[in-house]
Specification:
The protein has about 600 residues and is mainly beta. The chain has 6 helices and 33 strands. The chain has 2 domains: about 10-475, no CATH class; about 495-585, Immunoglobulin-like (Sandwich). The chain has helices at about 10-20, 125-130, 140-155, 200-205, 360-370, 450-475, and strands spanning about 30-35, 40-45, 55, 60-65, 75-85, 95-100, 105, 110-115, 165, 180, 190-195, 210-220, 230-235, 250-260, 270-275, 280-285, 300-305, 310, 320, 325-330, 330, 340-345, 380, 390, 420-430, 435-445, 495-500, 510-515, 520-530, 535-540, 545-550, 560-570, 580-585. Strand 3 (about 55) and strand 4 (about 60-65) form a beta hairpin. Helix 2 (about 125-130) packs across helix 3. The radius of gyration is 26 Å and the shape is globular. The N and C termini lie far apart (about 55 Å).
């Protein structure tokens, strides 16, 4: 497969005929929907993501979009937020703003949405998503309105304000009859611009004087990228009319906030995968009330932080991604894109920041720093096994629900409403400095609710690869194409197997691996040489897959021990599966 689009402009004759047949009205330009792939998301021109999709009669089924497209939804709302210590003479040092359940922003432009080959498409599906009606209710007028708005946005694309475009003749200016608006190579792009002028209406702090530009883009007809919407957020520190020339922001953070709502809101879990900077949600049960009419399983959804904020160093050996290009003389502030992950869970030990109150600003800013409570107090969060955590590098729920290892959701709190704060920072800004981050909203649908996490991780790796290809080709100015990477797709084991532990002999820990080709109830027990039970390592239902378990013999004497596994699965003839039931282990101290 190739991510390759014919970068040509709509024929003049076609557009002339089209406009003659378009009614004299247009669609709402304050908000738009990303819908070219298998995942949809609504964006307003002030950065707010409204929950406009729902299924009647199902509690908690209001969503910002759907995944897979046309079924149920996975996110209630999301948004870019920020906070920092602002030195500009105002007595409110700490300031926070952005979009959560409401926003404190003021739009600077209308919504702009373009699609590279819209004039060659039959936009019935686009019209259905835009006007939130089933395909059967789409009218010719609706379709014409979508065509008309695409053409209008193509002609009026705000490249002079910072919106990206493919400069075909390399003359540095946007010409609608020559150039292609939007992210080069993408099938669909949305661009918005707003400021923080209404900051007081979110968490009670005065504005900083920021301009924010957000770009969303997506691809179609790609097996894995169909499940992805990319997002770039650029924050420019313009300052206020009262700001002195030496005004600056210290210890600033950018946050991707999201309220995960996979189908029904009351049966969700969340977690993070630090290896790919991913925060994600998944269903606690194999069946969800909203999704059961579409699939036998429930999808997973997540966001990956692709890159963080860079600063200018002037060193030609440094490089970072700026404006979707590699630029020399820049270096990232932090060693990784996602520096803090805060998970809000029903019944957890902290609550949402107080809205419309400056206390909410101090609470939200503390979340960004990795602490609980209100700034400047460094209250810690309750971590795994009652260990307290906090500060830079705080990652809540970083375990693996697929292998059921590490700190995962559902152990101390039951399923329910879930929210995530994915943070990058800290960094500093002076007047006219720019902070830029890129993320991706990614969905995954597997064989069941847990296998959907595996599908989500795979799609996330493809999203990161495609982003890197875009940046490399945007930097070189070459024609845009994408060859999917050779990413190993996990396969299920062929047999029920208990492998020999390693290392062996060991002191004090060893790893035991077992494989399940199908779901089964697993009991894994260690015995001493006299047959006495030493420790039960596993005693629960497990999904098909390969698992590794750690065994610690710190409190045991040297000697021979046995590990025995039993599988219970009435649908499989275990005796014919070449099962190794018992292994011998040696503790040597």
């Amino acid at each position: 497969m190739h991510l390759k689009y014919i970068l040509i402009n709509p024929p003049a004759l076609f557009i002339t005929v089209l406009l003659i047949n378009i009614p004299l009205f247009s669609q709402d330009t304050t908000k738009g929907v990303m819908d070219v792939g298998n995942i949809t998301s609504w964006i307003r021109n002030d950065g707010f993501h409204p929950a406009v999709v729902g299924v009647g009669g199902i509690a908690g089924s209001d969503w910002n979009g759907t995944f897979p497209k046309g079924t149920a939804g996975s996110v209630y709302t999301e948004g870019i937020c920020w906070g920092g210590k602002v030195f500009d003479g105002n007595d409110k040092l700490v300031r926070v703003n952005g979009s959560t359940y409401w926003d404190g922003n003021y739009p600077l432009t209308r919504m702009f949405r373009v699609r590279s080959l819209y004039y060659k498409k039959y936009l019935k599906d686009d019209a259905a998503n835009t006007f939130l009606v089933p395909d059967s209710a789409v009218t010719d007028s609706m379709i014409n309105m979508v065509y008309e708005q695409y053409q209008k946005d193509w002609n009026e694309w705000p490249a002079d304000k910072g919106a990206p475009f493919y400069d075909k003749n390399k003359d540095g200016k946007y010409e609608p009859d020559i150039d292609i608006p939007g992210v080069p190579g993408a099938a669909q792009t949305i661009w918005i611009s707003y400021d923080d002028g209404n900051s007081i209406y979110l968490y009670g702090s005065p504005p900083i004087g920021l301009e924010v530009q957000e770009t969303y883009w997506a691809y179609d007809n790609e097996e894995h990228l169909d499940n992805v919407i990319f997002k770039n957020a650029k924050i420019i520190y313009r300052g206020l009319s009262s700001s002195a020339t030496d005004s600056h922001i210290d210890s600033m953070f950018i946050v991707n906030f999201s309220d995960i709502n996979l189908g029904s809101y009351d049966d969700d879990y969340i977690g993070c995968d630090t290896a790919i900077n991913l925060g994600y949600g998944y269903n606690a049960e194999p069946v969800d009330e909203a999704y059961k009419n579409y699939f036998s399983s429930v999808p997973a959804i997540g966001y990956t932080f692709i890159h963080g904020v860079a600063k200018r160093t002037g060193n030609p050996l440094d490089s970072a991604i700026i404006d979707l290009k590699w630029k020399k003389g820049y270096r990232y502030f932090n060693s990784r894109p996602m520096t803090v992950y805060i998970a809000h869970r029903t019944g957890g030990d902290f609550v949402d920041p107080q809205g419309l109150s400056y206390t909410g600003t101090l609470e939200f800013y503390n979340f960004m720093r990795g602490y609980n409570g209100a700034y400047p107090h460094n209250y810690l969060f309750m971590g795994e096994d009652q260990n307290q955590i906090g500060g830079y590098g705080t990652f809540m729920l970083p375990g693996d629900p697929v292998t059921h290892t590490g700190w995962i959701d559902g152990v101390t709190e039951g399923p329910g409403a879930r929210r995530m704060w994915m943070v990058t920072g800290p960094f500093n800004l002076k007047l006219d400095d720019t902070a830029e981050v890129s993320l991706a909203l990614v969905g995954g649908l597997g064989l069941d609710n847990i296998n959907s996490i595996t599908a989500l991780r795979l799609n996330t790796k493809y999203a990161i690869s495609a982003f890197n290809t875009l940046v490399n080709e945007n930097t070189s100015g070459s024609e845009f194409s994408y060859t999917p990477p050779q990413i190993a797709i996990p396969t299920l084991p062929d047999h029920y197997v208990l492998s020999q532990n390693y290392p062996n002999p060991f002191n004090p820990t060893t790893t035991i691996q077992y494989d399940l080709p199908k779901d089964a109830f697993v009991k894994l027990v260690v015995y001493d040489i006299l047959g006495r039970e030493v420790k039960t390592l596993v005693n629960e239902n497990k999904a098909a897959g390969s698992y590794k378990v750690q065994f610690d013999s710190s409190n045991l004497p040297s000697g021979v021990y046995f590990c025995r596994i039993t599988f219970t699965n009435s649908a499989s003839k275990l005796a014919n599966d070449n099962l190794t039931k018992v292994i011998k282990m040696m503790v040597l101290k």
